[in-house]
Amino acid sequence: MINKFLFRQVDNSSLIVFRIIFGFLCFLETVGAIFTGWIKRSLVDPDFTFSFIGLEWLQPLPGNGMYYYYAVMGLLALCIMVGYKYRWSTILFTVLWAGSYFMQKASYNNHYYLLMLLSGLMALQPANKYFSMDADSHPEIERNSMPQWCSILFILQMFIVYTYGAINKIYPDWLNTTVIANLMSAKASYMVVGEILQQKWLHYFLAYGGILFDGLIIPLLLIKRTRKMAFIASIFFHLFNSIIFQVGIFPYLSLAFTLFFFEPKRIYNIFFKNKKPFYDAGEIIIPKHKNAIVGIMSVYFVIQLILPIRHHFIKDNVLWTEEGHRLSWRMMLRSKRGHASYTIKNHTQNTTEKIRLKDYLSPKQRGLASSKPDVIWQFSQHLKAVYAAKGDSISVYVKARVSVNGKPAKELIKQDVDLANIEWSAWKHSDWILPSK
């Protein structure tokens, strides 16, 4: 049964079209980072970046290195789009994108994480078997079919993303529209729609509509009778997000995924009719490494199911502690504002001094170092390294007050804990974070 489900051959038109769209969107994302100034603000101007804990060695290239880094990614994205040296281009793009993603948290975004996962999945796909430079130069690889698991991978991945997105929204501040109201208050200056976005009825529509959309869109796309309706809803939902929240390529990438939900014949008729024969033989071709394929897929999706729920096994509220927040599809669920003061006790010089954050951090980094415990700890470690380079031994104490979703600010950090000289707890609660209640 599993063989028939995973290894039945189907027409590959949807995968070929998706490869072209995926490569083009990745190209726009990478070159856009150059020309919008994102690279300068996030990777060039800061003296150092807050990488993922444990990957502190992963820092931006010096000088103009990151511009070249992203230019190479843009070139690789074009290679993916046209199917040139496809496998190597996709693998290298995945590695470079992952490097950029893990080297900085100031612009953390679930969409960047998703793009990293999708790039890795694309590297496994036989997406260069038709309408590609690889197939033109090596006609023996040309195929008009693919195993069904190729589309199942993407459907399962997006089901996980959307489902956790819906589940994570079911908490008081989302349900009473506090989160939506905070998000929309920043859009009040928008021409034409700014005033409409402040309406309470719209906040309730977006809050509960967001839960329903995330929870139902994949099942509705899978059902033939509701597919067109779900597709139209997807267009509205993602264009709204693109215009109002300016979330890069993600809305358009999400719309591209609908290619895998429509019947192969429909996609073939739209894009490749009379250009290649339509495959409908339905052969079941079992590869030699079937068990390895099934095993890798199983392990991957088990990890994808576990990562987003790990915060339930860590003490206190993830909205407050941030422990288990990343890699868990917690998208636009809270706003945090804080103020922090860092005090250094210099044991070598026998002095005490206050740190001015602007002497070390960019404006965006200062916001993180004032509200997020992991970043506060990392900055304390950075201060320790800076002073150690001068031969000084120090302790760092932090006083931070943080507001979540506009609520009254509360103390976040135990002020008597030396954050420069304690270890980070990757899989359990850090008891120097004060309780949320």
Overview of the molecule:
The chain has helices at 2-7, 13-35, 38-44, 65-82, 86-102, 110-124, 133-137, 149-168, 172-175, 178-185, 200-222, 224-245, 250-256, 264-271, 290-306, 318-321, 363-368, 373-388; strands spanning 9-11, 145-147, 336-346, 351-355, 394-404, 410-411. By secondary structure, it is an alpha+beta fold. The protein folds into three domains: 8-143, no CATH class; 148-247 and 287-334, no CATH class; 335-421, no CATH class. The chain has a four-stranded antiparallel beta sheet with strand order 4-3-5-6. Strand 3 (336-346) and strand 4 form a beta hairpin. Helix 8 runs parallel beside helix 15. The longest helix is centred in the N-terminal third of the chain and has 23 residues, at 13-35. The termini are far apart. The model has no long low-confidence stretch (mean pLDDT 95).
Task: Outline the secondary-structure elements.
Blueprint: H1 2-7, E1 9-11, H2 13-35, H3 38-44, H4 65-82, H5 86-102, H6 110-124, H7 133-137, E2 145-147, H8 149-168, H9 172-175, H10 178-185, H11 200-222, H12 224-245, H13 250-256, H14 264-271, H15 290-306, H16 318-321, E3 336-346, E4 351-355, H17 363-368, H18 373-388, E5 394-404, E6 410-411
Antiparallel strand pairs: 1-2, 3-4, 3-5, 5-6
Helix pairs in contact: 2-4, 4-5, 5-6, 8-11, 8-15, 11-12, 12-13
